[in-house]
């Protein structure tokens, strides 16, 4: 179980996260939705300590991590036990797909090279990229890069996987292959925080949905509750706009 | 009167000059290594904006860039012994200043000079590595030093290589000033030989040829390394793996 408490973050006077409390059960897939600029990315980045908030603690595995600190053993623990998938993939450019997945295994998990290679190949296979193991990121399409990035993250067996709009930098025809892999990962029982604008996907893959507005959680429930009976006026308005845009939908 | 220009001598004196080539290469090599290490350190301090240190480093870089190498060599040659004498007086130690060969002064001076230029080259190369990859490494749980060594430096190296190559070439040429520290390297050897026959012009031509050839070799070596570390334009697919992949599911 992961518990986030009193998470607040502001940029100058702009309050981006306002005293967030969030308890995530093991195996939960939590979809985070909300208007642009409400702090969804900031939330994930604070949890992974890529951003330092003004206040906040994370309880994880019996450990209490003060994420307002700059560095320390607990913070390293937090980063080692959470994984991040970025909107723009951020694969290591000078490394092949295989080396990208092996990197954390060797450097952080201290695996031997052979062991890391074996594990990395399995993970690449899982995301359907084993034939591209020797390819460099610049040789791969966006969808393929994102699948490798997913393999890189899950190879570390994170207790919490953070995904920040993993498909929104992709051409529409590449979105499906990445969503398929994410669904597969979710089915394996990984605990995930998933920020996405793919409403249909969130609805089907998540077992809990959170609506974030102006740095606060204004809706929190099962997908059915949030999508079909939103309590908050802001949420209803958001959905109206979303449906009006009439995007091509992901079909399960 | 002999010949006005003795072409043969230009070539026959080359072997004797080359006896001192190792000194020149060692000087340049050690100064370059020192320059790279100090330069990297200064670059990281500047990037991390470490308070106090950044200002000191800016000051040092400005001073080094703003003065001629030959003056820096003289300052090292006279200044380092004075510094040691001061230490001896102050702390009653007995550091043997006279035992330090001029070679060391020259390496220190040239290395410091080099570091000021390397610092800027390295800083801009480090900053050329996109922030996202650094965050990705951090998200895996890697420390800054691990990220630096395994992710940032290999990429920055490729960016900086051509400029660092030029820097190496310029330091090779600067070693010809090491006579100021009583080091007999290529150029000093040339003067000694020329002093015997008063054939200065011929000897300087020989020297020019040697330096030029060294430069050409370095340029070619840099090109070779650049090619070697570049990501290949294309690579072949591996034979399809054992299990069913997402790709196939999509048809
Ligand atoms: N480094 C920064 N400096 C100043 N303001 C920032 C910085 N990063 C983010 N912000 C601000 O924080 C707010 C929240 O940003 P965030 O990226 O978390 O939003 P988001 O919910 O992920 O939006 P989107 O759906 O567009 O990705 C925005 O108003 C943004 O302008
Ligand atoms: Mg965002």
Summarize the structure.
The complex is a heterodimer of chains A (252) and B (251). By secondary structure, chain A is an alpha/beta fold. Helix content of chain A is 38%, strand content 24%.
Notes on the structure:
The complex is a heterodimer of chains A (252) and B (251). In chain A, the strands form 2 sheets. Chain A has a 6-stranded mixed β-sheet with strand order 6-7-8-3-9-10, with helices on both faces. Chain A has a 4-stranded antiparallel β-sheet with strand order 2-1-4-5, covered by helices on one side. The mean pLDDT of chain A is 93. Helices cover 38% and strands 24% of the residues of chain A. In chain A, strand 4 (55-60) and strand 5 (63-66) form a beta hairpin. Chain A has a single domain (2-74, 85-246), classed as P-loop containing nucleotide triphosphate hydrolases (Rossmann fold). The longest helix of chain A is centred in the last third of the chain and has 16 residues, at 172-187. Chain A is of the alpha/beta class and 252 residues long. Chain A contains 9 helices and 10 strands. By secondary structure, chain B is mainly alpha-helical. Chain B has one domain: MetI-like fold (Orthogonal Bundle), CATH 1.10.3720.10. Chain B is 75% helix and 0% strand. Chain B has 11 helices and no strands. In chain B, helix 3 (21-47) packs across helix 6 (102-128), helix 6 (102-128) packs across helix 8 (144-174) and helix 7 crosses helix 8 (144-174). Chain B starts with 6 loop residues before the first helix and ends with a helix. The interface between A and B is large, with 46 and 36 residues. Residues 40-41, 164-165 of chain A line the site of magnesium ion.
